[in-house]
Every structure is written in structure tokens, then in C-alpha cells.
Amino acid sequence: MIDGEALLVLADAGEVAVLNGVGSRIWQLADGSRSIGDIVAAIVAEYDTTADEAERDVVNFIEQLVKEHILVLSEKAASEGAERSS
Predict the structure, then answer these.
(1) For the chain, what percentages of helix, strand and coil (3-state, to nearest 5) are there?
(2) Model pTM score
(3) Cβ within 8 Å of residue 49, ≥6 positions away
């Protein structure tokens, strides 16, 4: 973390990704101890957004991180995300 922004070093791709403030906060919260619902609730509490917008954005961001092999979901989180997408 540098000045509230997360820098992710993607060694396999030889790239560095800089996350904005909300993305950095989601990254911090995705520490394995919180569910997607917990992360959404924290974003709603900390930012000027609705629960629906936060849920959509958090789920989309986490799906992108998983697709890029930056984040791995636990079985519990993966099933929770599938339930939310239904």
C-alpha cells in the first residue's frame, strides 16, 4: 500500500497493477477472514454507495481478480458468489 493505493506486482505477467481507493480497500478486506457479504457491507459503510451498487462492483472486481489468478476464493466464498449471481 502506498498513499492508500495498492500496488500489485503480477510476476507471471511482468506487470504492476495500481488499484484505486475502493479497489485497494476491497483488496485489504479480501484477507480470507471475510465473506463477500462482509466486504460489501464494509464498502457500503465506508463509501457513498448503495448496497446493490457495492455488491455488483465488489463481485465484479473479485471475479476479475480470480480470472487473472490474483485472488483465490475459498469454497465458502465461491458458493456465496454463485448464490449472489443467481
Answers:
(1) 55, 10, 35
(2) 0.75
(3) 43, 57
Neighbouring C-alpha atoms within 13 Å toward the C-beta of 24: 12
CA-wise closest residue to 43 among 22, 63, 61: 22
**Measured between alpha carbons, how far is 9 from 16 in angstroms, rounded to an integer?**
5
pLDDT of 47-84, one tens digit each? 999 999 999 999 999 998 898 888 888 766 545 554 55
Band (85; pLDDT cuts 50, 70, 90): very low
Q: Where are the domains of the chain?
A: 7-85
Q: So what CATH class is 7-85?
A: mainly alpha
Determine contact, residues 39/33, Cβ cutoff 8 Å. no
